[in-house]
Each structure stands twice: as C-alpha cells, then as structure tokens.
Design brief:
Helix content: 40-55%
Structural class: alpha+beta
Order of helices and strands: HHHHEEEEEEEHEEEH
Strand content: 15-25%
Number of strands: 10
CATH class of the largest domain: Mainly Alpha
CATH architecture of the largest domain: Orthogonal Bundle
Largest sheet: 5 strands, antiparallel
Number of domains: 3
C-alpha cells in the first residue's frame, strides 16, 4: 500500500514539475499559433486587395492568397516549435524523408498539381474560351488544380488531367470560331454574281459577325466546277447552328437566282477495236 502511495505521489510531483517547466511555454506556443492564424488572415486580405487592383483572375488570386496564408502560418508554427525547445533540424530531415516517399507514391497527382499551377500562372486559355487539346475540344468550363473541365458541343463534359495539357499543342479558338463552308458553282456561272449573293445572305444572318469581316473567295478550279470558300466568324455557342444555316441558305439562294451547283461529271469514251 505504501509503495502505491509513493508511486502516486511521484507521478503527481512529476506532472507538477512538467507543468511548471513546459506549461508556460505551451501557453505561449498556443498564443503564437492563434496570433499567426489571425495575422495570416489579415495578410491574406491585404494581398487579395492588392491582387484585385492588379487585375488577376479569380482562380490565380485565390491560389496566391492561400499560399500567403500558409506561409505566414508556417512561420508562426516554426516560432512556436522553437519556443517549446523542439529541435527543427531532425524534424525537417524526417519530414524530407517522408515527403520523398509520398512524392514517389503520388507521382500522377503531383504531376497534375504542378501542371495545374503552370496553367494558372501562364494562362494559355481562360474560362469561356474554346480550345482543342489532347484530341478533345470544347469550351473551357472550369480550371482546377488537378484537371480542366471542357463543355463539348454535344452537351457532354470532358475532364482532362492537367498533365495531359501542359506540353501539348494547344489550339485556342478564343470566344469566336470561323466557319468553313465550301460550295461549288458551274464554270459558266457569273462568279461576281455568286459572290455578291453570298455576301448578302451573310450580312442578313443574325449569328454571323461582321467584324471581323467574313472571308469569301474563289478556292479552287475543280473538275466539275469552281469551288468558293465561305469563312465567316460566329460566336462559339452559335458555331454548329450557323454552319448548318449558312449551308442551307446558300443552297436556297442559288436556286432562287438560278446559280447552278454542278454535279460531279465524268466523260467515258469507248474505243472500238482497230
């Protein structure tokens, strides 16, 4: 019984000694962390207001603000650990070894993260622009740290890992797309009349932009007729509809004005025996 009482008294004395020795340091460390949290929020708001004045987009601005807050909190965490007497060099060495192992296990995730940061900082495309990349195309719906989401014209969504985007050939159409309609007319057609008819129907169409000016030109002298290229611009959202409308309008206009669209023709000669 006496031994148990002595053990209990020894444990109590040890706890009191530890509380006296480390209690004030622990309280100070907690105060440092709380201070770091509020200082980080204040510095983050200050950085956010400065970045807004610089005109940075929201995705990049939020990322930079988070980095600033984490850096400030990390600085105060180091101060708190030093106050507790923690040796930072062995701790950093252990974190480095653990980080190397985690990096090897998460190569794909970290690759997407690095590529996402590259996209956010270099901004090769922005939300709302129409792009073609990695064999896919669509309007950019969202740019995230790990992937980019495209909205396809068939109303489906395409999610592309960011590592598949960085380093690839990117075709950025922006907010406009150029139609590419080719129509053939007979060789005896008055080309000026045909070009004038095309200009009129393009000027009357509500989804065809007049600036930049539509491109209308003779393309090739084909076997059966003269091919004319019709290449006006339209908004990305109107591309498919406008392409169909223009093709139908050209057909109807040419029929009304008697402009012949030739059929493919081949001349076959049969030679008799000599």
């Amino acid at each position: 019984m006496d031994e148990q009482l002595q053990t209990l008294e020894h444990a109590q004395r040890t706890a009191i000694d530890l509380a006296i020795q480390f209690g004030p340091k622990l309280v100070v460390a907690l105060l440092i962390l709380v201070t770091g949290y509020f200082v980080g929020r204040w510095v983050g708001r200050l950085a956010d207001s400065m970045l807004v004045k610089m005109g940075l987009d929201e995705t990049l601005r939020q990322l930079l603000v988070r980095i600033v807050r984490i850096l400030v909190l990390g600085l105060f965490l180091i101060m708190a650990l030093q106050n507790l007497g923690v040796q930072l060099l062995p701790l950093l060495a252990g974190l480095g070894v653990a980080g190397a192992g985690i990096a090897l296990a998460m190569q794909g995730v970290l690759g997407n993260l690095a590529a996402g940061l590259t996209i956010i900082f270099t901004r090769p495309f922005q939300v709302g622009e129409y792009i073609s990349i990695a064999g896919e195309e669509g309007a950019v719906e969202d740019i995230k740290l790990f992937n980019t989401v495209l909205s396809h014209p068939d109303r489906s969504r395409i999610v592309i890992p960011n590592r598949k985007i960085v380093g690839e050939i990117l075709h950025n159409f922006g907010a406009l797309r150029q139609l590419d309609v080719v129509v053939g007319v007979a060789y005896d057609t008055d080309i000026r009349q045909a070009l004038a008819a095309i200009r009129e129907l393009l000027a009357a169409h509500p989804k065809i932009l007049q600036a930049p000016e539509p491109v209308i030109r003779v393309l090739t002298l084909a076997d059966s007729g003269v091919n004319i290229a019709i290449r006006p611009w339209t908004a990305v959202a109107d591309f498919n509809t406008a392409s169909s409308d223009i093709t139908q309008a050209v057909l109807e206009t040419f029929r009304e004005r008697g402009i012949q669209i030739p059929f493919p023709q081949r001349e076959v000669r049969l030679l008799g025996d000599a």
